[in-house]
Amino acid sequence: MLSISDKIAIVNTVATILLSITTIVLSVFVYGATKKAADAAEKTVNLTEESLKLNRKIQEMQAAEAEKLRNGLRMQYVDVLYKKCEQIRLSVTSMDAQEIHRSLSAIDYNHHVKPETLAFCFSTEELHVIKKAWSALDYYLNSYYRKTYKGSEMGLLVTNAHIPISAFEELKGLLESIRTA
Fold this sequence. Notes:
The chain crosses the membrane at residues 9-33. Keywords: Membrane, Transmembrane, Transmembrane helix. The protein is 82% helix and 0% strand. The protein has 6 helices and no strands. The chain has helices at 4-91, 97-106, 115-121, 124-144, 156-159, 162-180. The longest helix has 88 residues, at 4-91.
């Protein structure tokens, strides 16, 4: 018969074997769960990368569409401004003050393009040239154009016509360069 110490040794051995088997089984389960979690994480990374690629592509398409819209509007407003520019420029090129007065009395000076539309369609430098032309016209009209004149005052329309002419010639050159670009 076995002594108590032998029995304890057998129980310890069996317990150690059972504990080892339990540890191995748990390790296999933990390894399987860890592998599944790693695979899921890898799939999540791949899905995130694809999602980012798709978002970039959508943003590129939206930017291209916005640029196409901007360029379309830009060309339309180039034509509008060009026609108005020529109308104003030609109205002040005569050497006859009465002819200039009649021309200025008959035209609408406003280009009727909203400032935000101009800002959307044109660069800062281009906006400066556009504003400069209309500012020169405003100065010319406010300084020299009147409904009625005394003496030789009407002659100031001819002698100062270079103010809007040079500004609108610069604008005309800009608009022509945009058209041909």
